[in-house]
Specification:
Length: 150
Amino acid sequence: GDGEITRSHFADFLLTQGAVKDQQEAFDRYLSKGKPAFVPTQWAPLEQAIAWIKQAGGIAVMAHPLRYNLSFKWMNKALADFKQAGGQAVEVVTGRASEDDIRLSLQFVQKHQLYASVGSDFHSSENPWVELGRLAPLPASVKPVWELLG
């Protein structure tokens, strides 16, 4: 079709073939780092990726920052680099975020003077993580990313 093929598509294929009992097993056995079907991602340099987003009329938002498993020091460095390269916002409320995660993300957003976004990480109706439209609200203490749209 007109989309891209992702690891989720391969997980679905393995499931339909009876090779795994669910998508998670496909990732655990085959598609994660160190597994037989893992293919590393080729990343564009940060500055180039942000430039592409802005040239397309988009807003550069760092998605689910706490999932990168960076120490406090390294997350601050990553956000400083992101902002210096033209990054504008951070996803504060995510599909899997706890109240503690949201508080920590807020600290990063406020320290680096970035806008904040909300994202469900919804990929399909079979998504087990969150029901579409059922997320914590964005805290009032931050500037919402949608203010940049107007």
